[in-house]
Amino acid sequence: MKAMILAAGYGKRLLPLTKEIPKPLLMVGKKTLIERNIEILLDNDFDNLVINVSYLSHMIKDHVSKTFPLVNIEYSEEAEPLGTGGGVLKAIDLTWKGAFFTGKCRFMS
Fold first, then answer.
1. Which of 12, 44, 75, 80 has the largest CB neighbor count within 10 A?
2. How far apart are CA 7 and CA 91, in angstroms?
3. How do the residues of the chain divide into helix, strand and coil, expressed in percent and rounded to 5?
4. DSSP secondary structure string for all residues of 39-68
5. Is residue 107 part of a domain?
6. Is 2 exposed, middle or buried (0-12, 13-18, 19+ CB in 10 A)?
7. Domain tally, the chain
């Protein structure tokens, strides 16, 4: 199954933490936010991931490729963050060829 992680925003509400580090790379305990999201998806049988990136994208891509070298991950590059709808629309060719479901899930561990 394929999933998309939205990781292109500036993280303005977390300034000054996100001035030099993108929000997905902020640490929560011993893992970054994006590591936690990827691990949850992998644990739930998603094996193809698309991540949209923009702000400090090179840092996100470097971290993810080093942390998950064997996972099939594609990136949708945005010159500037397009927001949720814009990010999904830009990545549609990388994600789903037909209809798709999007929803909000809460995982507790």
1. 75
2. 12
3. 35, 20, 50
4. HHHHHTT--EEEEEE-TTHHHHHHHHHHH-
5. no
6. middle
7. 1
Whole-angstrom Cα distance, residue 93 to residue 101? 15
pLDDT band at 29 (very low <50, low <70, confident <90, very high): very high
**More confident call, 42 vs 106:** 42
Query: pTM of this prediction?
Result: 0.83
What is the tens place of the pLDDT at every residue in 55-87?
Answer: 999 999 999 999 999 999 999 999 888 887 778
In a domain, 99, yes or no: no
Assigned domain for 105 exists = no
Q: How far is residue 80 from each of residues 50, 85, 86, 100, measured CA to CA in Å?
A: 17, 14, 11, 25
For residue 71, what is the domain's CATH number? 3.90.550.10
Please return the burial class of 4, using the count of CB atoms within 10 Å of its CB with bins 0-12, 13-18 and 19+.
buried
